[in-house]
Amino acid sequence: MSGWGVSLLQGLVITIEISVGGYLTGLVIGGLVAWAKLRGPRWLVALANGYSTICRAVPEVLLILILYYAGQQGLNALMAWLGYGTLGIGGFFAAITVLGVVNGAYTSEILRGAVLALPKGQIEAARAYGMHGFGLFRRVILPLMIPFAFAGLTNLWMTMLKDSALIFVVGYNELTFTAVQAAASTRMYFPFLLLCGAIYYALTQFSNIFIKMFERHIRRWTPKLG
User: Fold this and answer.
1) Does the keyword Cell inner membrane apply (predicted)?
2) Mean pLDDT in consecutive groups of 10 residues from the start of the chain, 226 residues
3) What is the distance between the alpha carbons of residues 23 and 158, in angstroms, rounded to a whole number?
4) Helices (H) and strands (E) in the chain, counts
5) Which one of 12, 30, 37, 220 has the fewest CB atoms closer than 10 angstroms to its CB?
6) Cα 133 from chain centroid?
7) DSSP of 107-168
């Protein structure tokens, strides 16, 4: 394995970066889509539901290929129609965007379900005290919905760590792609692929430490029901 240690480390860093970026992008997209489903007009609700249905029905590898290649072609065609030159999209930005779009569909359902599970009486009481808009969301809705959404969102993070390897199909040089390159170059498939799997396992265990810390934190101020 001599000579590939630095490359594997660089692949690991890229995997973490695109996982974090894709997850945060998915949270933003999922939040907007969840809002559209709950508060939007009918046409926007239908559009949001169509987006979620497609992303959950089509295999993620196929979605990544479509968004990565067709998305870039479509964007460049739009730029050409507007009279601008070809827009070069970096692989790193494209990877984060693709993973965020796919992850956003699942995030939207988790957030929508968390909002629907909130005790209606507490929200009505907050409104009776004059709380509206962002203040109502920040002080009442968000603290109440976090316990309902926590398990689903943490599972999505674990899924994101694994889904980051799917970027391998478009030739982006993350951990899995680097491990396969190393294995093919040295003909040491079992050691390199086993090491790659062990690194992903270590990442999930390391993530679990922070997840449990955060869970203990939110449980301290979460009232027990029943």
Assistant:
1) yes
2) 78 91 94 91 92 87 80 77 71 82 92 86 77 75 84 91 84 85 87 92 92 80 54
3) 10
4) 10, 0
5) 220
6) 26
7) HHHHHHHHHHTS-HHHHHHHHHTT--HHHHIIIIIHHHHHHHHHHHHHHHHHHHHHHGGGGG
